[in-house]
Amino acid sequence: MNLAGMHQSEFAQAAPVTERHSHGRWEPYVDNGGTSVAIAGADYVIVASDTRQSNGYNINSRYDPKAYKLSNNVVLATSGYAADAKRLVEVLEQNSQMYYHKHEKAMSTKATAQMLSNTLYGKRFFPYYVFPILAGLDVDGKGAVYCYDPVGSSERVVYRAVGSAAALVQPFFDSVVGFKNRRDADTSRLLDREQALKIVIDAFTGATERDIHTGDWLDIYIVDRNGVHYQKRELKHD
What we know:
Layout: H1 8-14, E1 35-40, E2 45-50, E3 53-55, E4 58-61, E5 67-69, E6 74-77, H2 82-103, H3 109-122, E7 133-137, E8 143-148, E9 154-157, E10 159-163, H4 166-176, H5 193-210, E11 217-224, E12 227-234
Helix pairs in contact: 2-3, 4-5
């Protein structure tokens, strides 16, 4: 075929027509940023989360809590997709209420931790995009912190940081809470409540300077033998 001698209209008829379709891609998960931490002590546990909810460079809300009181001895903190976190809390609260009405007593921290693991594992084929921390007192009155991945694998630890500033806060905790890589340090020593609270506040103060997804307000829950105590502090708003 002599293409050079063809008229433009003839070439248009001879050339194959290719249709282009534009399809929007559905993304089921969004990381809404924010940071949650927990530190366990001999007779207490501290859980703290900032309240900023963001999407990229946009702030959706300056007060969207990530920490929730599940009972008088258990607190849950989350990070990841805010909508999944809220749904997970609803499921846990419903199951806790069912347990209470069936057994006429509140779930223990260990039982709640196992329920959370089972709930996450049950959604493993379309998991909740959350990285929870569950904290409370164990049967001996000692602080207990459980951390999870989105499909329910869990570990009991002394301290943990999750979320957008975890890469900043966790090494800080390793040094001042876990006393790791420090000469002549007693790595089994637990901090008293005042020390741990100051470290938590310092951690978030530093995190807001480096992480744009963490800020606005800080929700702090302290669990001891007298129940759950709440306090709120202001963080950077920019």
